[in-house]
Amino acid sequence: MEELKTRRPIPLSTNYAIAYAARDLDVDVVSAYPITPQTTVVEKVSEFVANGELDAAFIHVESEHSALSAAIAAALTGARAFTATASQGLALMHEMLHIASGLRAPVVMSVAMRSLSAPISIWNDQSDIFNARDAGWVIMFVHTAQEAYDTVIQAYRIAEDPSVLLPVMVAYDGYVMSHTTEPVVVEGRESVMKFAPKRQYPYRLDPDRPVTIGAIVPPEYYYEIKYQQVKAMEGALPKVDEVDREFGKAFGRSYGVMECYMCEGAEALIMANASYAATLKSLLPDAWKQGYKVGLLRLRLYRPFPLRQFVEYTSNVKSLLVVDRSISYGAPYQGPLANEIAGAKLKEDLGFNLISVVAGIGQRTMENEDFIALARLAWEGRTRKFPETVFYGVRE
Amino acid sequence: MTMIEIRWHGRGGQGAVTASEVIASASILEGKYALAFPEFGAERRGAPVRAYTRITDSPLIPRTPVERPDVVVILDRSLVRRDYIEGLKEGGIIVANVPLKPQELLDKLGLAGQYKAATVDATSVALKWLKANIVNTAILGALIRSTGIVRLDTVLEVIKSRFHGKIADVNVMAVKDAYDSTQLSWG
Predict the structure, then answer these.
(1) Which of A243, A373, B25, B96 has its CA 20 to 30 A from that of A226?
(2) Is there a contact between A281 and B63 if contact means CB atoms under 8 Å apart?
(3) Is residue A35 within 8 Å of A92, Cβ to Cβ?
């Protein structure tokens, strides 16, 4: 542990931190197409391949659909496959997202979350991920560049575990994280490979033992195969927790599946992820000074949803404000996460008042005072109902 | 330490974003926590751009625009105006690329007595060493000289790792030259 303490953080963006993780994981195949704000991930990875720091096949493809197709095929041969995308790229992959999970291909993909067209916006929100949430991938949100590096490493341990065999997305905010320089401890190839050694894929494509993967399945069997994905996702939940704990023992950093920050004595909570969670951590002390005793419920693992931890953290609060940075048009609550939380509240018979807030669409600026305003809303929610989704900061 | 917040104003192509990252990188290498991020727009050469650097000793740093900076750095002469000083904390520092004495700058802006100023003719320094109007490394010299937030050596180390060969050499000279020729309103 002495050695850990003296390791010197270096300045990296989240995009670069992810590229360093791919390098240290010795990925075998990288198949990606550049898209803002993900581009510098694959630029850096290709630099590592070009200068010999990473011995990988870098497949240049003509679209994201092909990028993921190639990554799936590579993973099914037993190679460690990596790709990265954002926004329209993730949308174009949509068909292959379901094929990756259905074929149980342990691909890991980083997503620099960005809004969707039209109109064209290159800026951040989370429309891309929330449109992909039902594709059967494990989805994890990270809130610092360090956590991005660490989580990509954890993601391969989770994805490649024989009891899981599911693809994993590691998602972070475009620009606000992807292009922000911050300190990151990079652990290096030797210790990362010790933590996440490559394993033999159990059903791999092999010319010497030919098999067909992904063939047509009649109604008598299709349902059971999809149900296996249900069970695999359930099984991934304790695995994510276990891998995170082991990561903590190996490297001195762990994050849990869901984090409750400043929750001691809090009467209200804000549920947020990624950069908003990071900002709230820094600003909640100011909210408390103003009398709003509000904690942060940071969503890290999204699929599978950590319901037990959610119940534990929310069972004694009076209100829960859920921040969505995407819109589920026409839904009962128009924030997709708030809709789910309404379901969880009903399922677990939880007593808090739910406040659905949509914010930051197309990277609409949120200043410090706006985050304090969210804390005030959460606080007001203890004694007041908010039956409709609040579209924070919109001009009508 | 309390958090130091820097707001950078320049025009696309002058390197304000790179400068904001170099200062954050140097701070990180000196063991502090720091964030640097641009105000993101579609990148257009010549358009006004802003960037932010926050430096502190805690990992808890907001990822929001800097509204109340301790230091405002202005890379482009056409942006040396009062509206770019907005929100600067009382007693804060203006670091500007202008061929004026710092007191003349404060008088011109009508801000004498309210703020401190550090001035350098970064354009001339950049043209001399880089043969181009890319003033970011020169203005870094003025920022380090006026604030002392990071050591000159650390910044030079970052520049040498970020740039290569002759480009690194001339940028190092630009930082040093600007460091030496910066004038302070208080010294």
Answers:
(1) A243
(2) no
(3) no
The predicted-structure confidence for B84-136, as pLDDT tens digits, reads as follows: 999 999 999 999 999 999 999 999 999 999 999 999 999 999 999 999 999 99
Q: What is the mean pLDDT of residues B148-170?
A: 96
For chains A and B, count residue pairs whose Cβ atoms are closer than 8 Å: 71
- Residues A298-305: what's their mean pLDDT? 98
Q: What is the per-residue pLDDT across A206-233, written as a single tens digit (0 to 9) for each?
A: 999 999 999 999 999 999 999 999 999 9
Alpha-carbon span B10 to B58, nearest angstrom: 28
Task: Report residue A223 as tokens.
Answer: 């349902």
Q: Using the beta-carbon criterion (under 8 Å), do B67 and A368 form an inter-chain contact? A: yes
**Residue range A2-251, CATH number:** 3.40.50.970
Lateral strand order in the sheet of A390-391: A258-261, A294-299, A268-272, A319-324, A353-358, A390-391
Domain count, chain B: 1
Residue A3: its pLDDT value, please?
42
pLDDT digit string (tens) for A114-133? 999 999 999 999 999 999 99
SS3 labels along B65-111: CCCCCCEEEECCHHHCCHHHCCCCCCCCEEEEECCCCHHHHHHHHCC
Q: Is the pLDDT of residue A7 over 90?
A: no
Q: Interface pTM (ipTM) of the complex?
A: 0.95
> Is B59 near chain A, with CB under 8 Å?
yes
Report the pLDDT value the prediction gives residue A6, as an integer from 0 to 100: 54
Q: Is B61 on the interface with A (CB under 8 A)?
A: yes
Q: Which residue intervals of chain A bear CATH 3.40.50.970? A: 2-251
Closest residue in chain A to residue B19, using alpha carbons only? A181
Q: Is B87's Cβ below 8 Å from some Cβ in A? A: no
Nearest residue in B to A179, CA atom:
B37
| B2 near A CB under 8 A | no
The DSSP secondary structure of B117-132, one letter per residue, reads: EEEE-HHHHHHHHTSS
Q: What is the three-class DSSP state of A238?
A: helix
Residues of B in contact with A275 (CB under 8 A): 63
- A23-59 pLDDT, tens digit per residue, is 999 999 999 999 999 999 999 999 999 999 999 999 9
Range of the domain at B163: 4-184
Class of domain A258-391: alpha beta
